[in-house]
Amino acid sequence: MNNVVSLMEAKSAAPISYDERKPNDVLIHVRFHPNAQVFTIDNCPEHISLQDWFYLLCYAAPQQYQVFAGGRGFFRMRRGHFDTILSQNAA
C-alpha cells in the first residue's frame, strides 16, 4: 500500500480558492532620507505625494506601523483596512 502522493496530484486535488490566494495582510515598506523625509513608500497612489501618503497612513493606521533601524519601517494591516484607506483617498 503506497500512501505517497506526488506534488502534482496534491495540487490538483486541493484547488485554492480566491480568498486563500489573496494575502490577508498588506505590508507597506517605508524608507527615509537622513533628514526624515520619505524616500520610498509602497502602494502610494499617483495623486498623493510620498510624504503625504506616509502621513495619511500614520493617521489612518497608527498602531500598525513598526520602526526599524537604518531609516526604515513598515505598516502591516489587514487587507480590508488597507482597501478602505485606498477607497477613501481615490482620485
What attributes does this structure have?
91 residues, alpha+beta
Question: Tell me about the biggest sheet?
Answer: 4 strands, antiparallel
Which band does the percent of strand residues land in? Answer: 25-35%
Q: State the helicity in percent bands.
A: 25-40%
Number of helices: 4
SSE sequence, one letter per element = HHEEHEEH
| Cα-atom radius of gyration | 19 Å
Mean pLDDT reading? 83
Shape: globular
Distance between the termini: 61 Å
Number of structurally distinct domains? 1
DSSP E strands, number: 4
Q: Would you identify the regions where 5 or more consecutive residues have pLDDT less than 50?
A: none
Which structural class do you get from the secondary structure elements?
Answer: alpha+beta
Biggest β-sheet: strands ordered side by side in the sheet? 2-1-4-3
Topology:
Elements (H helix, E strand, L loop, with lengths): L6 H7 L4 H4 L3 E8 L5 E4 L8 H11 L4 E4 L3 E7 H10 L3
Antiparallel strand pairs: 1-2, 1-4, 3-4
Description of the molecule:
By secondary structure, the protein is an alpha+beta fold. It has one domain. Helix content is 35%, strand content 25%. The chain has 4 helices and 4 strands. It has a 4-stranded antiparallel β-sheet. β3 and β4 form a beta hairpin. The longest helix has 11 residues. The protein is globular. The termini are far apart.
